[in-house]
Amino acid sequence: MSVKKVLITKQGKKFYAKNLDGDLHTQYGFIKKEDLKKAKEGSLLKSNTSKEFFIFSPFFIDLYRKIKRDAQIIPLKDIGLIIAEAGINKESKVLDAGSGSGALACFLASIAKEVATYEIREDFIEIVKSNLEFLGLKNVKIRNKDIYKEIEDKNIDAIILDVPEPWLAIENCSKALKPGGFLVSYSPSVPQVIDFVNAARKNESFVYLKTIEIIEREWEVEERRVRPKSKGIGHSGFLSFARKVQ
Ligand code: SAH
User: Fold this and answer.
1) pTM for the whole thing?
2) DSSP state of 74
3) Does residue 159 line the site of ligand 1, with CB under 6 A?
4) Which class does domain 5-58 fall in?
């Protein structure tokens, strides 16, 4: 699968043209392949029913929203906080486990220098590979390993755990992280937070920093009718942060 062009209506509804060799069918009629092919970036196209669409080439985030998802992926609100709190940037070597569909690994790979992603299930590894290829990311090493048993990577700036029993990986993470490196654990439920934070506090290699839940509330802004949307995204997970000190 590929995405060649993004089309967006004035109301913000998005459509993706997977190839330019066929007409693009939408709920607002279809756009002829000739129009798709010759359209300039940012130009306005019309469907057969005269609905207007702007057209442009996909950005990373447009493609990211189209990746295959199987396991529950980390939502963008939480990815944003992980990146900001751990200061992940183009110099960073980061690691995550488990890969799941590789959503977090892919996002991190788009901004970091190198990513290693650990996953025990081979069927998920196939999904990760196809998502990496779809996004054109080449800086990710996939490790078919149990993070509770072994981490082969060293000198890591940040590790993000999204596994059922993150406390079982703390000792291995301590060996893999640089002094000053961040250990982040993402867990949906409170008992997981308790066991992870207690274990991190007991471990002399780590200083526990904080646990955060991000609650996102989108607002409807329609002329003077301005209010929170009635349907929001529900609870995702808690993020606990620790820093490796020795
Ligand atoms: N963060 C991922 C989703 C992870 S889902 C994303 O954004 O897409 C959790 C994954 O952890 C599952 O795929 C599961 O197979 C994997 N997993 C569970 N225990 C593990 C372990 N001990 N080592 C490595 N991966 C593990």
Assistant:
1) 0.95
2) P
3) no
4) alpha beta
